[in-house]
Amino acid sequence: MNTARILIALLTALTVLFAGQATSSAQEGQIIFHGRDKATLTNAHSVRVCDEERDGHYVWAELRTGASEIAREADGGDPGCDTETFSLNYKEVLLCEENKGCTRWVPINVWG
C-alpha cells in the first residue's frame, strides 16, 4: 500500500515539473490564430505570419502602437512563413485573411 502511494506521489511530482516547463517555454512567444493561419510574436520583436490553409486567401498581421501607427507583415500563401523584425514597441496585433476578416486586436504580451 505504501509503495502505491509513493508511486502516485512521484508521478504527480513529475507531472507538475513537466507542466511548469511547458508554461515557461510558451511565454517565449505569443501565437494568434485565424482559422489555421497564425502569427507568432517573439521576444526579439519579430512577427512571423504563416498562411497554413492554402486556400488562395492572402493573410497578414497588423501591429499598432498605443497611438495610431500601424505596421503590416504579410504572407501571400507561398510555402513557408514570412518574418519581419520591428524596432518600435507595438502594443497590439491582429491577424487577417482576405475575404474572411480579422481577429480582434490582441495585446502583445511578449514585447513588454
In short:
The chain has 112 residues and is α+β, with helices and mostly antiparallel strands. The protein has one helix at residues 2-26, and strands at 29-34, 37-42, 46-50, 59-64, 70-75, 81-85, 92-97, 101-102, 106-107. The protein has one domain: Immunoglobulin-like, CATH 2.60.40.
Characteristics:
112 residues, alpha+beta, Immunoglobulin-like, 5-stranded antiparallel sheet, 4-stranded antiparallel sheet, 1 helix, 22% helix, 39% strand, globular
Give a verbal description of the structure:
This protein has 112 residues and is of the alpha+beta class. 22% of the residues lie in helices and 39% in strands. The radius of gyration is 19 Å and the shape is globular. It has one domain: Immunoglobulin-like. The protein contains one helix and nine strands; from the N terminus they run αβββββββββ. Mean pLDDT is 78; it is low at 12-27. It starts with a helix and ends in a 5-residue tail after the last strand. Strands 4, 5, 7, 8 and 9 form a five-stranded antiparallel sheet that branches.
> What is the mean pLDDT?
78
CATH level 1 class label: Mainly Beta
CATH-derived architecture: Sandwich
Characterize the quaternary organization of these chains. Answer: single chain
Largest sheet: 5 strands, antiparallel
Label the structural class. alpha+beta
What is the end-to-end distance? 50 Å
Radius of gyration: 19 Å
Task: Quickly count the helices.
Answer: 1
Helix-strand layout with pairing:
Layout: H1 2-26, E1 29-34, E2 37-42, E3 46-50, E4 59-64, E5 70-75, E6 81-85, E7 92-97, E8 101-102, E9 106-107
Antiparallel strand pairs: 1-2, 2-3, 3-6, 4-5, 4-7, 7-8, 7-9
